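Q: I have 526 residues here and want to know how they pack in 3D. Can you give me a structure?
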Amino acid sequence: MIKANFVTAKEAAAMIQDGDTLCPVAMTLVSASESILKEIEKSFDETGHPGNLTLLHSCGQSDRKDGIQHLAHEGLVKRIIGSHWGLQPRWMEMIAESKVEAYCLPQGQIAQLYRSMACGLPGKMSKVGLGTFIDPRIEGGKMNERTKALEDITEILTYHGKEYMFYREIPIDVCLIRGTVCDEMGNLTTTEEAMKLEVLPAVLAAKRYGGKVIAQVKRVAAFGTLNPKEVTVPGVFIDAIVVCENPLTDHRQTSSWYFDPSYSGQLRVPRSNIEPAPFNERKFIARRGTLELYPGAVVNLGTGIPNDMVGKICSEEGISEDIMITVESGIYGGVQAGGIDFGIGQNLCAMIGHHEQMDYYNGAGVDLTFMGLGELDGSGNVNSTRMGTRCTGAGGFIDITQNAKKVVFLGTFTAGGAEYGFEDGKLVIKKEGKIKKMVNQVAQISFNGPLARRKKQAVVIVTERAVFELAEEGVVLTEIAPGLELKKDILDRMDFKPIISPVLKEMDKALFIQEGTFGLKDKISD
């Protein structure tokens, strides 16, 4: 019998050589190979090796303290190529201070690049990224001064008269994956993981370049006892396996809990167990956003207000089965966890691979996506990827928004300490935010407004005090919250002057109901 190679976490870390390209597969802390990542950090602290790594990752992989935060040391990693660092403060600091070469690529393009590399191609061609900061004619995804002088890792191709982005291959030396159980041959399942992710494409990409695959698991089973349909990675592709010694700490299903079967499909919880979202400006904004829904819509939720609020509101309002909510990780239906546990959900009806989900988002395009709002300018450009020196990165934002049939941005009108009250069907601004989000020019083009206008893509921007739509002529103000003055509370707080709709309306007063439902089911069925 072919036997698996079982090693300690320390031995696994020693398999990574100076200068290697390391590719861990995870999202947030879901499926993070924590035992191995800790040993890599410890080895570098004690010996200075491994060093000068290239860290390649499709998703953000941390909960602000663990995951690939363990690798955020100057000298350990020379170059990082990833999509999102919003939950990785040390990486954002290193990138901002030019302590590492840093490239941002769209999350879905990296996940799909693994598959392209696995089948022998020199890269991946896509329209995703054109006209955004990823485009080499704009910023090339280069996130700091240190990187600006370096080579592009993407290029523009013209095929049959149309422009495409070309994402070049990035050979993988070591791929880190995580599973639930492996057998004595090394065949690996991911049964208790809360996402499927892009595990097998990344593994096969590493194999294409002669790279090593290292896996972390919770348990070992006898050969022949695993259901072959549940095997995610055949053991012949895995070079070393680490059995986690402390799974309560180092093999958690997600950051906030060790294991909950309702997030991996082994259990469904009663709907009454799901707590309603508290009423505040975030829920108010999300409520107004849900008025853009319609029965039968397939919906995507981005991070922030969309993922934290929209799914819960749909559950409260009894429309969860009238629409289909999806998240970029590959989950369908249910109620989504939020914050540091982004990308997972309870009571799901389906779960597919991360790269497969991006096939849908990049190809057919989701019916409607809710996304967070950082900045908006008068051309309709949106920045949700860089705020001052804080470079969160794109995540799946660009993959999803460029092809969605309708984009609904959700965010507060200002940032930096704003406080609100909701009284007698009116909005009260108790304290104004210090930072304007409606600006003359966004700091980074995450979403290209003129391109969306040329495509006649439906775009709505929802804040607590105003609603805008993107029209052929520009940004149009269509609604304001009851209780506000148009000039003082809205126009004077904007750096650009929007087009004011001739039929400017007040927001629906039902949105202000703080207890119970606000009648969404009837409103979207009219």
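Q: Anything worth noting?
A: The CA atoms of residues 132 and 445 lie 5 Å apart. The first helix runs from residue 9 to 14.
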